[in-house]
Design a protein that fits this description.
CATH class of the largest domain: Alpha Beta
Structural class: alpha/beta
Shape: elongated
Low-confidence stretches: 503-507
Radius of gyration: 28 Å
CATH architecture of the largest domain: 3-Layer(aba) Sandwich
Number of domains: 3
Bound molecules: zinc ion
Number of helices: 21
Strand content: 15-25%
Strand order of the largest sheet: 11-14-17-10-18
Largest sheet: 5 strands, parallel
């Protein structure tokens, strides 16, 4: 007979309902076919299901079985269809009542011994179940806290196939599942960073205007210490942003079994040897979100940026511009969001001590030239702010003066973001991402500011792009200052953060 149940197909980070229809026919040669655009990972379900049924003392019906996953035009990828298929087969073979399956979203991978393994994308499945008014979700126990993030949805955690059947037959009423408690919002504070007033100001401006930040300084000057604290000075995430970030981690399978809603902005620091797929996303089966997407609404930090492969760095340009990344699959395109702040660090030269007052640079002229060529790439141009950092002085390191805490910086950043949100009519548009026309409309330079910019163009030989960057930065500096017009001081401060233009780069 025909039995119906329901599961989910993941399209990027969102879940689409998939109707799982299983027809079990008596007689003939026993066969099992899955139709409806299943990928290899879904077609392999038959071996797992057969073994899981036998291990659970349930018989594989010796008949012709056809499972249809609808809608047929949607590609189904992943091992999470196992549980719905197995229960559908049992209902089709009249081992359990078909009506019992009605209204449940079912996800989970079956192990050969009949246990139910955690799967990716359960949050998206739970959201789809809620949106379509389903009774609830039957999912792996390890994924249950993740499903419980969706309020008002019944979550049934099952650790093995038998458990799922007992529940459907009314033999077990699971206790309410709660999402894990939220971890503290900020753990690393700017107050712990001694000295570096300019670099901290640069970080504040970067966060306030959504500008990408490049820190240049010798080893041990505190570049990564500041980078790690950037999520803590960015505005708190909205509920929707938190859900979006949590969804990405769910699809990546990185939430773990103690997951709650992610309230902290992500901070990712991939290794210099990261592959293209690791950075952008990809891999076999259901493509995994890359580091750019795992940094969604947070910070992607590239430490020692000169050590990354050029093609890997170049691949960042599209995602930076579009805020999303598309991964080509056979027959489909998968899209993940990736609105991140790019922060990078580098030494001023290969040995690290160019321009250092105490230690001498030991780099040859040829090595310096090679290094600088890498610097001049189109990606480096994307860094609105280039902050030069010296090692902190003895006085700074010994100082007992408390530094400003992240919370104080964050409130200024939030105020500046608020102004931009009103100006551009969207919280997603900032001084760094607004169109050129919008920039021209909103950057009113005072006469003095205009003449300073003119002088800078002459003195530094600024290109059109360089002028554009300084205007965007000056707008942010003015916003932090609570000023509607852009004054001479704002332009001055902005130009001070364009190190690579302002200083003679080692050559
Ligand atoms: Zn050197």
């Amino acid at each position: 007979m025909l039995a119906k149940t329901e599961s989910v197909a993941l399209v990027g980070t969102s879940g689409h309902l998939v109707s799982v229809e299983v027809y079990v026919a008596g007689g003939g040669i026993p066969t099992f076919r899955i139709v409806g655009l299943p990928a290899a990972s879904v077609r392999e379900a038959d071996q797992r299901i057969k073994s899981a049924l036998e291990a659970s003392d349930l018989h594989w019906p010796g008949s012709r079985i056809i499972a249809n996953l609808a809608p047929g035009n949607l590609r189904k990828e992943g091992s999470h269809f196992d549980l719905a298929l197995a229960l559908g087969i049992l209902a089709g073979a009249e081992k359990i009542e078909a009506e019992r399956l009605e209204g449940w979203m079912i996800v989970g991978e079956l192990a050969l011994d009949g246990s139910v393994r955690p799967v990716r994308g359960v949050l998206a499945a739970a959201m789809a179940a809620k949106k379509h008014g389903r009774k609830g979700i039957i999912c792996p126990g390890d994924n249950a806290p993740e499903a419980a993030i969706v309020e008002g949805l019944k979550v049934v955690p099952v650790d093995n196939l038998r458990r799922a059947i007992t529940f459907l037959e009314g033999g077990w009423d699971p206790p309410a599942v709660l999402p894990a408690p939220e971890p503290p919002l900020v753990t690393e504070d700017m107050a712990e960073v001694k000295g570096h007033p300019e670099a901290k100001k640069a970080a504040e401006i970067a966060c306030a205007g959504g500008h990408n930040l490049l820190m240049i300084g010798p080893p041990g000057s505190g570049k990564s210490m500041i980078a790690r604290r950037l999520p803590g000075i960015l505005p708190a995430m909205s509920m929707q942003e938190s859900l979006d970030v949590t969804s990405v981690y769910s699809v990546a399978g990185l939430l773990g079994n103690k997951a709650g809603l992610t309230r902290r902005r992500p901070f990712r620091s991939p290794h210099q040897g990261v592959s293209l797929a690791g950075l952008i996303g990809g891999g076999s089966g259901l493509p995994r979100p890359g580091e750019v997407s795992l940094s969604h609404y947070g910070v992607l930090f590239l430490d020692e940026i000169s050590l990354f492969r050029s093609d890997v760095l170049d691949s960042l340009r599209g995602p930076l511009e579009e805020g999303r990344v598309r991964i080509a699959r056979s027959g489909a395109m998968v899209e993940y969001p990736c609105r991140f702040s790019l922060v990078a660090a580098m030494n001023p030269c290969p040995c690290g001590y160019f321009g250092d007052p105490v230690r001498e640079c030991r780099c040859s002229a040829a090595r310096l030239r090679y290094y600088n060529d890498k610097l001049s790439g189109p990606l480096i141009d994307r860094f609105d702010i280039q902050a030069m950092m010296a090692r902190p002085t003895r006085a700074e390191l010994m100082s007992r003066e408390p530094s400003e805490p992240s919370s104080a910086i964050r409130s200024r950043v939030e105020a500046a973001r608020e102004v931009q949100s009103e100006r551009y009519g969207s919280p997603l548009i900032s001084n760094s991402s607004c169109s050129k026309a919008e920039l021209e409309r909103h950057v009113r330079l005072t006469q003095e500011a205009g003449s300073l910019l003119g002088a800078l163009i002459d003195a530094l030989g600024l290109t059109g792009r360089g002028v554009d960057r300084i205007k965007r930065l000056a707008r942010t500096v003015a916003d932090l200052d609570g000023s509607s017009s852009v004054e001479e001081d704002h332009v001055g401060i902005a130009s001070g953060h364009r190190y690579l233009e302002a200083e003679a780069v080692p050559a």
